[in-house]
Design a protein that fits this description.
disordered N terminus
Length: 410
């Protein structure tokens, strides 16, 4: 009887071991198939861990985390629009100059004409849309390469910024305008520190993300398109939820959530939904993947390109307003070099040079990789010359990684 039980048990144990091995293999295969998606997130974690150690814990201090968010907010916002531009198969070199120009116009309207921020902000966003639409018109309908059009735009709006400001800095701004960047969400419970409102918002965000992930997984399983192992799904979402709650607590121990963090979060959600769940988003990817095929399938590629650049202009304008509000002044040098950081963030985040590939979350991760590197190297006292060299090498490595994956897939 005992021998029979032993013989019956061995196959069961073997079956369990086979299932475990199968699960391990499926997780490894899943990671290999989504190397671009998870690779940059892992790189961000490793970079943050490295600088946390070498800076003796300074990187993750609440005040430094807050500064990190404020310093990179305008880069993240422009990266959202730049991702769509690059996915559509184009490039925009003018975003830094447009941001500086719109900030200068806002400064003149606020300081010299004493207009209310409630009027200035919408007017500047409309100005940004018009600038992006003007550039998009020549690119979409006249077929002029985006590199040339936006390079010209970079020079034009850099000159217009100098003209508007008359070569001088203009400021300071009203407190209500500064709140665009330097304001914080108040604690409605009146506790102060830690900011209970920030902790609850972080917990609610984590819960919503987990709920949406579960719902998406159920939908994919219903249609038989789910390829993510369950154990990996649980571990990934548990880690993301824990990280959000932990970072929310750290920020709550200082001043809570900056207003600009809420702005970034809302825009990230909107553009993630736009790219993943709307017809327009899917058409942008189709446009970048194969423009001729997209046009033959009935997509109005010219209008889509036009709208992509108009959207980029709006986000560049918003970034310019936030940057000016943070400095509390508009300067002729505002926006110089922003386009390089934005483009680098998108490519580091996994977008393809040839278009048709890239994700919103990847662009945000890429922006924070650049931001953490800048912040960490500054804390260590590394000179700006070496910082530029290191950032250039990281960008080159990201592009080489993209080309390698593409050649491997081919």
């Amino acid at each position: 009887m005992s021998e029979l039980s032993a013989r019956e048990t061995k196959p069961a144990e073997g079956l369990g071991e086979a299932k475990a091995a199968g699960a391990a293999v499926s997780i490894a295969t899943h990671l290999q198939n989504h190397l671009r998606e998870y690779g940059m997130l892992l790189a961000l974690i490793v970079i943050m861990g490295f600088f946390q150690v070498v800076t003796d814990g300074t990187l993750m201090r609440p005040v430094n985390l807050t500064n990190l968010i404020l310093q990179n907010s305008y880069i993240v916002i422009m990266a959202l629009g730049m991702l769509l531009v690059i996915v559509a198969g184009h490039i925009d070199l003018s975003v830094g100059s447009v941001a500086g120009f719109v900030g200068a116009v806002a400064a003149v309207m606020l300081v010299q004409y004493d207009l209310a921020p409630a009027l200035v902000v919408p007017a500047c966003l409309i100005l940004g849309i018009m600038i992006g639409a003007a550039q998009g018109y020549w690119i979409a309908y006249w077929r002029i390469p985006s590199f040339i059009v936006t390079l010209a735009g970079m020079l034009v709006f850099r000159g217009l910024t100098l003209w508007v400001l008359a070569g001088q800095s203009v400021g300071p701004f009203p407190r209500s305008f500064q709140l665009l960047s330097t304001g914080f969400i108040p604690d409605i419970f009146g506790v102060g520190r830690p900011n209970v409102t920030a902790i609850l918002l972080g917990a609610a965000t984590a819960a919503i993300l987990v709920f949406m992930a579960m719902r998406n997984r159920q939908r994919h399983m219903r249609y038989g398109t789910e390829d993510e192992p369950f154990a990996f799904f649980v571990a990934k979402n548990g880690f993301i939820a824990a990280a959000i709650i932990f970072l929310s607590y750290l920020l709550a121990t200082y001043r809570g959530f900056p207003n600009v963090l809420i702005t970034m979060a809302v825009l990230t959600v909107i553009y993630t939904f736009l790219t993943n769940s709307t017809t327009v988003g899917r058409r942008v990817y189709a446009l970048g993947g194969n423009e001729k095929a997209a046009k033959l399938s009935g997509i109005r590629t010219e209008r889509l390109t036009f709208l992509t650049f108009a959207n980029m202009g709006m986000l560049a304008a918003l970034a310019g307003l936030i940057f000016a509000a943070r400095l509390n002044t508009a300067t002729p040098k505002a926006g110089v070099g922003f386009e390089l950081d934005v483009i680098a963030a998108v490519f580091i985040g996994g977008a393809s040079m040839s278009g048709g590939v890239g994700k919103i979350v990847g662009a945000v991760v890429g922006a924070f990789i650049m931001g953490v590197m800048n912040n960490g190297m500054s804390i260590l006292g590394i000179g700006i010359d070496y910082q530029q060299v290191i950032k250039g090498l990281v960008l080159l490595a990201a592009v080489i990684f993209d080309v390698y994956n593409k050649n491997k897939a081919a």
